[in-house]
Amino acid sequence: MLVLVDAFFENIYPLPSYAFLHPETTKRRCRDAQVHRALASAVCAIAALHMGRDRQLASRWVQGAEQSIWLHLGSPTIPRLQTLLLIIHFRMETGAFQRAFMLTATAARFAAAMRLNYERPDLDPISREVRRRIVWSLKIMERYFSIGLPEFELCPIESIYLEFPSPEEQFEAKSRGENGTYRLLVRLETIRRDVMKLNRSVAPLDESLPSLIKLIRHHQQSLSDIGMVMPEGTHLTETQTLGLLGSPWLPRRVLMHISWHQAHCDLNRILLSGYPEAASPIVLEAVDPADLAAGERQCLEHATSIIQILTNLNQQSTQRQCLEFDTAICAYHAARLVLFISRFGRDPDRPAPEFAASRADLCLTALKRFFPSSALVAPIIEELQRCIGVFSQQQDDLTSFKLNPTKEPTRRRDLESQLSAAARARQRLAIHSLLRQAEFSDGDDDEEHDREPGFIEQASAQGLERGGDFVNQDDHRCNTRASGHKSTASLASDGQVCHTHNGNTGLEVSDWQANTGSQSSPSIEQMATPLLSWFGPQDWDWLSSRGT
User: Fold this and answer.
1) Which residues form the Xylanolytic transcriptional activator regulatory domain (predicted)?
2) Mean pLDDT of 396-409
3) Is 128's pLDDT higher than 90?
4) Where do the domains of the chain lie?
């Protein structure tokens, strides 16, 4: 098992969502048999899963660790919460999305019960950093289920009174070359969360929003500030990518750049008319056309950069790299944007369809190589394949329309009814949302044979031991806020207020509210036809009216 522990910290720990364990302490306690038994089992299970070892054995380790959590549900500790986070990752990566979602809520309760959202200046630096990283890792994990929907937010940013993570060199003395990348990734995560909340707030508006461009520029400035301190600058070149191949921190360094570009895409696609994540037509009609054109150019520039980073990595890597799930999410959105802008963009210099399809193909090739058997990424790969196929087919249809224009209206109406239904089904949660993939029922089904076995009874029969704690805890409350978080002047216009809390900007809605009600989404297989998620009636109106 010690081999698996070493493999975990060599290959898995560099992933941002796994950065909540202290490597030196955990490995030493594993060698001395002092580590929490369930935690050791969970670490080994994750390592075995990623290394392609005995999956059944890994599942048994996770099952035993989870039973230990249920036995001590009322006694949360740091090692138990770390164990639970690893269990959630295992469930996610093996396709048990429903269970992972419910366990994530339990993890959030553990963190809240132990007051991990507050700084503890009385503890030693390592213990304080472990607490911070647990909370920030939980936030990263939370985004994989949904982002920007308050009803599913388990650890609201507004309730986190913590500093951002310290550089790896301060957390572990032996580390070199990380250069604060994890800290920057967490900062980017908070910005992307705020941008998504802005996106979801403006989407249903039926009146203009004069402050929209001001809000967008505020977030752009935040991204510019991060870009100023990125180790390699904002542009990851082919040469720099080659230099990262021998670094254990490659997953973080690559994702830092991709996430920065993705944040720009998330922000500027609000101005991309016709795109499902864009602001409503009424809002965009009031925006200066120059700003709309700039938004489209920014989307294309940053989406292309994401694809180029992945392409360079794929072409220069001699072996498969272990990458964070968010890398695949960003790649998917980049490909969507390039395809959409090629077809529906307003810039006369937009990329040709052949170029856009080739970029999407490069993206797909990289995802297939880096995530060959991932249950998390499989739906993304499948959807991207369908996107490329439909895009190519639509290009053929345009040629056919020019030759046989009278045949198009009937076919257009038939497809429009199907496409608009698919667009509505996908509007709330993207294909990569694990909450969407979980496909929870509406509560009417309660079959006895579908119920899970009694874990507490099983665990009691097996006589699992409690195990030791990793970090000492006490229950007194600490109300210390991080000194580095400062409020900024609010941005106000016509009743809309943008404010910063703990360095993060969100939109308050005074006269209008975003429709964030939960709705169930059918699986891909239940769709009437596999369709692009951005298709809608306006797309086909454009085809029928212009035919180009």
Assistant:
1) 6-197
2) 49
3) yes
4) 1-174+452-483
Tokens for 395?
């290009």
- Return the CA Rg of the chain: 24
**How many other C-beta atoms lie within 10 A of the C-beta of residue 72?**
15
A 10 A CB-CB count for 473 gives 16
List, as own/partner pairs, every contact residues 222-227 make where C-beta atoms lie below 8 angstroms and the sequence separation is at least 24, other chains included: 222/191, 222/505, 223/188, 223/191, 223/260, 223/263, 223/264, 223/267, 226/184, 226/187, 226/188, 226/191, 226/260, 227/260
b/e string for 85-117 if b means 16 or more Cβ within 10 A? bbbbbbbbbbbbbbbbbebbebbbebbeebbbb
Q: How many CB atoms lie within 10 A of CB 310?
A: 27
DSSP class of 350: P
Sheet holding 496-501, edge to edge: 491-493, 496-501, 504-508
CA 103 vs CA 65, 70, 88, 181: distances in Å: 13, 11, 6, 28
Residue 156's pLDDT is 87
Query: Which pLDDT value is given to residue 510?
Result: 32
pLDDT in the model for residue 392: 86
| Residue with the two structure tokens 């941008």 | 195
The residue-averaged pLDDT of 490-511 equals: 38
337 touches 303 (CB < 8 A): yes
Do residues 433 and 2 touch, judged by C-beta distance below 8 A? Answer: no
pLDDT digits (tens, 9 = 90+) for 288-327: 999 999 999 999 999 999 999 999 999 999 888 999 999 9
- 536's tokens: 């809608």
Encode pLDDT of 135-154 as tens digits. 999 999 988 887 666 777 88
Give the mean pLDDT of 430-459.
51
Q: How far apart (Å, rounded) are the C-alpha atoms in residues 357 and 17?
A: 32
Name every residue whose Cβ is closer than 8 Å to that of residue 315 and which is 6 or more positions away in sequence.
none
Contact predicate 148/95, CB 8 Å: no
Cβ neighbours, 10 Å, residue 14 = 25
Q: How far apart are CA 102 and CA 123, in angstroms?
A: 31
* Dist. CA 153–CA 161, nearest whole Å: 16
Burial (CB count within 10 angstroms: exposed 0-12, middle 13-18, buried 19+), residue 126: middle
| Tens digit of each residue's pLDDT (9 = 90 or more) over 219-275 | 999 999 999 999 989 999 999 999 999 899 999 999 999 999 999 999 999 999 999
Given a contact cutoff of 8 angstroms between Cβ atoms, the answer to whether 220 and 287 are in contact is no
- CA angle (411 as vertex; 405, 412 as ends), nearest 5: 85
pLDDT at residue number 30: 86
Q: Count each helix (H run) and each strand (E run) in the chain, helices first.
A: 21, 3
Tokens of 252: 């973080």
